[in-house]
């Protein structure tokens, strides 16, 4: 990445130890262009130029979301004007499902267009020979793996508020692990939700609607 920054005048590399959501939001705030393209770090995207050209010439005022399950991995590409990301408050300070949080808020405002992400547009990258959704691929030791699982469980239950059965299915826990791993993660995740300094989705939507109502009143 450093070589790109040295070779391309308008390329900027920002290094910051933070959650994924905070990292995405930092990038949006630092961006100088009018259109934002968000991609997953574990994907190779071959048609970003074409997607950007199509969006710029479409006069769309929505976020366009490309998604697809490719070789056991789920990849996203989200494109939209910077002003749209700002309108809905941007990304939350979450390490997991930060994109789902943002899209739930955007969908409440009816500003999301969904499209399929195909194999010709992107290819997933395996990390330590594991596909996306398996956080242990980023862990260097068992303790770090457990810590990541707990944080992910907190974020999953904050965004989705799954029942226990949906939660263990989402974590892909099978057999006895649905009990030995699932129950502790579910309980810890539920408790740790209250340590997050993130506005719940329902409250975020309410705040946006109230702000829109105030603007309407002032303009009427």
- Ends distance: 50 Å
Q: What would CATH call the architecture of the largest domain?
A: Alpha-Beta Complex
Radius of gyration, in Å, reads 19 Å
The level of helicity is 40-55%
Shape: globular
* CATH superfamily (homologous) name of the largest domain: Spore Coat Polysaccharide Biosynthesis Protein SpsA, Chain A
Q: Give the domain tally.
A: 2
Structural class designation: alpha+beta
Fold-level CATH name of the largest domain: Spore Coat Polysaccharide Biosynthesis Protein SpsA, Chain A
Residue windows where pLDDT falls under 50 for at least 5 positions: none
By CATH reckoning, the class of the largest domain would read Alpha Beta
What's the overall average pLDDT, rounded? 90
Question: Strand fraction band?
Answer: 15-25%
DSSP strand count: 6
Number of helices: 10
In what order do the strands lie side by side in the largest sheet?
A: 1-4-3-5
Biggest β-sheet description: 4 strands, mixed
> What's the order of the H and E elements?
HHEEHEEHHEEHHHHH
Features of the shown structure:
220 residues; alpha+beta; Spore Coat Polysaccharide Biosynthesis Protein SpsA, Chain A; 4-stranded mixed beta sheet; two-stranded antiparallel sheet; 10 helices; 6 strands; globular
């Amino acid at each position: 990445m450093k070589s790109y920054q040295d070779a391309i005048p308008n390329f900027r590399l920002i290094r910051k130890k933070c959650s994924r959501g905070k990292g995405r939001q930092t990038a949006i705030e630092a961006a100088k262009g009018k259109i934002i393209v968000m991609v997953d770090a574990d994907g190779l995207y071959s048609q970003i130029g074409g997607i950007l050209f199509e969006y710029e010439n479409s006069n769309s005022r929505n976020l366009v979301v490309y998604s697809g399950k490719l070789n056991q991995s789920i990849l996203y590409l989200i494109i939209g004007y910077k002003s749209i990301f700002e309108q809905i408050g941007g990304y939350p300070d979450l390490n997991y499902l930060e994109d789902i949080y943002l899209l739930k808020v955007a969908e409440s405002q009816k500003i999301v267009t969904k499209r399929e992400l195909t194999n010709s547009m992107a290819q997933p990258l395996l990390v330590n020979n594991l596909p996306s959704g398996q956080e242990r691929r980023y862990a260097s030791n068992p303790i770090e793996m457990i810590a990541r699982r707990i944080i992910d469980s907190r974020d999953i239950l904050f965004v989705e508020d799954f029942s226990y059965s949906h939660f263990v299915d989402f974590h892909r826990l099978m057999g006895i692990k649905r009990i030995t791993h699932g129950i502790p993660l579910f309980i810890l995740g539920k408790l740790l939700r209250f340590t997050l300094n993130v506005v719940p989705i329902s409250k975020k939507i309410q705040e946006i609607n109230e702000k829109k109502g105030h603007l309407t009143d002032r303009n009427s």
